[in-house]
Amino acid sequence: MAGNGPNAILTHSQKVCRLYKRCIRTLEDWANDRAEFRFNAVVMRARFDETRSETDGRLLAKQLIEAEQEYMSSKHEDPKIFKNDPGGICFRRSVQIHDWMFDTYHPWERAQLRDFFETRQELKEQYDE
After folding, report:
1. With 80 as the cut, is the pLDDT of residue 1 above it?
2. CB distance 29 to 80 below 8 Å
3. How far is Cα 65 from Cα 55, in angstroms, rounded to an integer?
4. Residue 24 and residue 38: Cα distance in Å, rounded?
C-alpha cells in the first residue's frame, strides 16, 4: 500500500510504461520456460509499438482503457512476488531496534546487563564529543 494522501497525477506515457511493465511481469508469471516468455515479451512489445506514432489523444485514452481491461482479465491468480516486496518471505523480517528503547529499561534490568550498559554509556559519550 502506498499510504495515505491523494493519488499522483500520471501522464499518459507514465500510465503506458507502468502498464507495459505489469504486462511483462504477468507474461513472466504465465510462462513455462524462458524461451516462451521471451517470445511473448517480443510480441507484447510489438503490440505497444504499434500505437507509438498515434497522436489522437482520445483514441490513445480508449486504447489504454481497453489494454488495462485486457491486463486485468489475464492476471495470474498466484503471481511471483520478490522476496523483499510486501507479501514476500523476507518483507519486514529484520526489525530495527531503536537505541532510545534501552533508555526505558528498569534499573534492575540494567543491573543484569551491566557490561552492555557501561559499554553503551561510553559509546554515547564518545559520540557526543
Report:
1. no
2. yes
3. 16
4. 10
Residue type present at position 89 = I
Q: How far apart are CA 2 and CA 14, in angstroms?
A: 17
Judged against a pLDDT cut of 60, whether residue 2 lies above it is answered with no
**Which amino acid, 18?**
R
Residue matched to cell numbers 540494567: 110
In tens, the pLDDT along 42-100 reads 999 999 999 888 899 999 999 999 999 999 999 999 999 999 888 888 888 887 778 88
Distance CA 5, CA 27 (A): 32
Distance, CA of 39 to CA of 50 (rounded, Å) = 17
SS3 41: helix
